[in-house]
Amino acid sequence: MDSRIIAPRDHEVVAAINRRTGAGLRVVGRAPHGRLGGAIYAEWPGGRPAVVTRFLGPLAEAERTVEVLAQVRARGLPVARHDLVVDLDDGVVFVQERLPSAPPRRLTPARMDAIVEINDRFAGALAGWPDAAVRLLCPDCGTGPCLRHEVLATHGARSRHVLEEILAIGRREPREMTGDDLVHVDLTAANVLFDDHDRATGVVDWNLGASRGDRLFALIQTRIDREWFVRAADADPVETAAAVHLDEILAHRIAPATLRLYWAHWMLRQLTWAIRSTPPDVVDWHLDMIETRLA
């Protein structure tokens, strides 16, 4: 058995998959990383390892994601094989292969380079998929009411000013991302696997879908995720150096106006979540972060 703790509901989820599909999976553990409800480690009859994860979207989008990933995997790109898409009563789950290696316990500048390099392998990967979802870069919600706008508008003077800046960027910049790259919209370090030689070997947890656009867009989420380490009371100087290194990469590789647009898109979501879900000090450093990036 895997040494990880097994959540009580893991057995229920896997039992439901088995009832729907006859897969015969057995729970063996739980992944130590991941924010999308946790990954369940399982085994097929015969012992072949598997991972069960939730897809945060409708069944049709999950099936399209699996089709896209199967095509790029067949061309040698570093994504897992997805064996099953199962529509359970409370949502959709993937059953996929468990790739070797593991997420990094500590992110160094060299490991950050490895994340950037493996993400670069997705360049042009969806050129043959005109129907793949194009990631919308629309910081506003059109003509209707927008919960995110309301949250920022009512929180305080700083968040209202940030909202004004985001809306101004949205009015003058393109509303759709260009490019034919495969984009992972939750490209955190926990979703990149490394071998014992610090080589990035796989990108996992496509539970928000496979999008088409500019692969560099995904690195903004990578950077936001590292801010939790930078802002920790016992911040590791190596982790901080990795975050600063990614800032330098982003500034070098993305045009300034496009980089501001990408930050506006991500931070509208992130700041809304922080205001609704985190203590005031965490909200403050989120405000610090977006004010710096939009300046």
Largest sheet: 5 strands, antiparallel
Q: What Rg, in angstroms, do the CA atoms define?
A: 20 Å
* Poorly predicted runs: none
Strand order of the largest sheet: 1-2-3-5-4
Kindly report how far apart the N and C termini lie: 51 Å
How many helix segments?
9
Q: Which range best describes the helical content: under 10%, 10-25%, 25-40%, 40-55%, 55-70% or over 70%? A: 40-55%
Overall residue-averaged pLDDT value = 90
Q: Shape from CA axes?
A: globular
Structural class: alpha+beta
Question: Can you describe what's shown?
Answer:
The mean pLDDT is 90. Strand 4 (82-88) and strand 5 form a beta hairpin. It is globular, with a radius of gyration of 20 Å. It has helices at residues 8-21, 59-74, 109-120, 147-155, 157-172, 218-230, 237-253, 256-277, 280-294, and strands spanning 26-30, 40-43, 49-55, 82-88, 91-97, 181-184, 192-194, 200-203, 210-213. The chain is built from 9 helices and 9 strands. The protein is 45% helix and 15% strand. Helix 3 packs parallel to helix 7 (237-253). The protein is an alpha+beta fold. Strands 1-2-3-5-4 form a 5-stranded antiparallel sheet, sandwiched between helices. Strands 6-9 form a two-stranded antiparallel sheet. It has a two-stranded antiparallel sheet with strand order 7-8.
